[in-house]
């Protein structure tokens, strides 16, 4: 169900932390409505790549083109870009001093200037959608990990982003809570949301992903449709990785 | 004991007047100190070397000299330039002093907030300023309440030092009362009782605030 419009295009992206070269000449294209899954061992650079896409990390070199526009940190208002690129974190990062609904309406009211009553109405719809219709007024500390992550997804969606980035969204969850978050993400994918997902959930990658990219040591080793990559990996590295986790 | 109670009752008016000045002085100086502290805390985490140096210099200056010296230098220095009421000379001196400690408390509290909070705010399109004001500072203040309460208690007790530039707050009242009647022990003992009452009241208020804020944790 991929569109033809390129949402994200990355060319020869390089990123270093001091002497540590974490991303090496990364090329990546994400088309509208695509679900792109990044897999690889810890330290392979997949989270850093994701964080470069909404400029939480600033690239050293290369091009990042979002919705047809090449973004430069000097000339672009990164806040405007981030409005279009939602992000969900491994550790949820909900605002603990705000209730669930306050978490969701914070950015729409503060950043977009949407009226509070309107933001609450839309926020409640989003919370209903992620199955938390009865949790508007509680504080995040009273929620389970899976519920927190679903609030975080609703919070990101409240900005009506064009792309959603997921940085290991289920890695901090108890095993029995993983399913509810993946189900929410699948629903989102089915609605046509463009998504880039860093995950260790290979079942999700296979079922929901349009493309899977395998990263090792800061490089993209191989990519393809999930069935190709999982069933017929071409590179030795990919084979070794897959046999280690499957 | 009966003598103490007798003097306590006799000096009730005088000490209440002193108490009122202590309270005003503490409130004014700590309010100013809070904003001074917030300002220098933000300078310290600004990532601009020059601003950090300014904050470091201020904190070094305050921590490196006794409060009584600061009060005298400020008072005698200021009256050379502007005619400033004694009360405000004292309040500004105390604020200048407490501000440095409050700056360190607030800076520590801000830096103790998980980096993910800033990232979450920024990833939603909020500016650095919005994220600081709406996400980081409210959490930092909660975390700072016990330390701030402690610093406020120190500030109240330190306000006794401005009696040396002539303010008749609690300690000033006790000093003049004690020497006029040649009864130092009784007057200073009564002063101690008044300070204990103020500090007790503030402690209860801080405890109450802490309890109320615990509800979201």
TrEMBL record, chain A:
InterPro entries: AAA+_ATPase, ABC_ATPase_HisP-typ, ABC_transporter-like_ATP-bd, ABC_transporter-like_CS, MetN_ABC_transporter-like, P-loop_NTPase. GO terms for molecular function: ABC-type amino acid transporter activity; ATP binding; ATP hydrolysis activity. The keyword Transport applies. Keywords: ATP-binding, Nucleotide-binding, Transport. Gene3D superfamilies: P-loop containing nucleotide triphosphate hydrolases. It holds the Pfam family ABC_tran. The keyword Metal-binding does not apply. It comes from Ornithinibacillus caprae. This is ATP-binding cassette domain-containing protein. PROSITE patterns: ABC_TRANSPORTER_1 (PS00211), ABC_TRANSPORTER_2 (PS50893). It comes from the Bacteria. Residues 8-242 form the ABC transporter domain. PANTHER family: AMINO ACID IMPORT ATP-BINDING PROTEIN, ARGININE TRANSPORT ATP-BINDING PROTEIN ARTM. CDD domains: ABC_HisP_GlnQ. SUPFAM superfamilies: P-loop containing nucleoside triphosphate hydrolases.
TrEMBL record, chain B:
This is ABC transporter permease subunit. It comes from Ornithinibacillus caprae. Keywords: Amino-acid transport, Cell membrane, Membrane, Transmembrane, Transmembrane helix, Transport. It holds the Pfam family BPD_transp_1. It is a multi-pass membrane protein. Belongs to the binding-protein-dependent transport system permease family. Its main location: membrane. It is found in: Cell membrane.
